[in-house]
Amino acid sequence: MRTPPRRTRTAAYATAAALLLGLAVAPAARADAERPQAVTLDDLARQSGRYFGSAVDNPELDDTPYANLLGTEFGSTTPGNSMKWDATEPRRGVFNFTGGDEIVNYAQANGLSVRGHTLLWHSQLPGWLTSRTWTADELRSILKNHITQVVTHYKGKVFAWDVANEIMNEDGTYRQSIFYKTLGPGYVADALRWARAADPNVKLYLNDYNVEATGAKSDAYYRLVKQLKAAGVPIDGFGMQAHLALQYGFPNQMGQNIQRFADLGLDVALTELDIRMPLPSDTAKLARQAEFYGRVTDACLAVRRCVGITLWGYSDRHSWIPPVFPGEGAALPWNGNLRRKPAYDAIAKSLAAAARETKG
Ligand code: G3I
């Protein structure tokens, strides 16, 4: 996986972060090797060979305290919107990589790797694509060109692509998107092959929500991945978005579900983790949220090929949830003032335990 090595932090930064974490700070005279080095979630994740990331939307980079914390605490980022089709190909054949490049540049300057999101999705498509019908040949050519141009542009700059996002319905049937309706189910294999042709090294993922538990939807992906593998179609990973909610309970058999995809020879990643709750938050809800975050992290860390976890934004200051689910929110491990919630400690504890096991 092309996750660039994390930059080495200065002792001054490590000390400041250790103070924030409440860890014992090594006395100045103590040998470097004895200093507490693993002080961020990404540092802890790296000790067991994973990354810990957070998505970011371009306007959030102007929020300096937010951007600074993103750049220090996390090892990977995913653009929340700026690599989607409406942003990258706003007119047919006219590509605009400004927003995605801004995030790649920010990531490179701060030593973060980038997950590409997303090449093909039924949502956030440009008007020119959705406002008329296309023949299968036309749409195939449009899709191939889009994937080829975008993957080529970000070759060597993103380590993974969510090639196809949210292609299944809850009952495990294909979503009736413009792609499915015009091209039939073969469009998924085509998209993966075109992405591979444009970048032989990038990891190619299918990605969806409500697939953390066993059930009709994750079963459909399991069958599809098996078919794709049997047909020699390039696929490297399965992304479980993990948009969870306290009121719906913890996903049934999440650990076993991650394991069965890994057993197909795939990497698995938790790609958009957040755990919302009915507002207002209170101590009991925050404690339950922390328990869920710890269990999700444990579920990933129990599977060797669960390669990383990405939060869909890390703070309640910037979250997609309140406008989409009125009356719900408080979903992230940092609150709106960028203060850590109990969820942070639960994640750190889980990551530290896995790090100790790796060492032992
Ligand atoms: O860019 C326009 C801006 O010009 C306009 O003034 C403003 C007014 O509402 O809207 C802006 O577009 C918004 C866009 O985010 C960029 O901020 C859209 O309204 C808004 O709907 C869009 O929401 C995004 C959502 O995907 C769209 O479905 C969220 O930010 C983004 O976090 C969310 O991400 C998705 C993943 O891609 C896939 N999985 C689910 C996840 C959460 O919905």
UniProtKB/TrEMBL annotation:
<dbReference type="InterPro" id="IPR044846">
    <property type="entry name" value="GH10"/>
</dbReference>
<protein>
    <recommendedName>
        <fullName>Beta-xylanase</fullName>
        <ecNumber>3.2.1.8</ecNumber>
    </recommendedName>
</protein>
<dbReference type="InterPro" id="IPR001000">
    <property type="entry name" value="GH10_dom"/>
</dbReference>
<dbReference type="Pfam" id="PF00331">
    <property type="entry name" value="Glyco_hydro_10"/>
</dbReference>
<keyword id="KW-0378">Hydrolase</keyword>
<dbReference type="InterPro" id="IPR017853">
    <property type="entry name" value="GH"/>
</dbReference>
<comment type="similarity">
    <text>Belongs to the glycosyl hydrolase 10 (cellulase F) family.</text>
</comment>
<keyword id="KW-0732">Signal</keyword>
<keyword id="KW-0624">Polysaccharide degradation</keyword>
<feature type="signal peptide">
    <location>
        <begin position="1"/>
        <end position="31"/>
    </location>
</feature>
<feature type="domain" description="GH10">
    <location>
        <begin position="38"/>
        <end position="350"/>
    </location>
</feature>
<keyword id="KW-0858">Xylan degradation</keyword>
<keyword id="KW-0326">Glycosidase</keyword>
<keyword id="KW-0119">Carbohydrate metabolism</keyword>
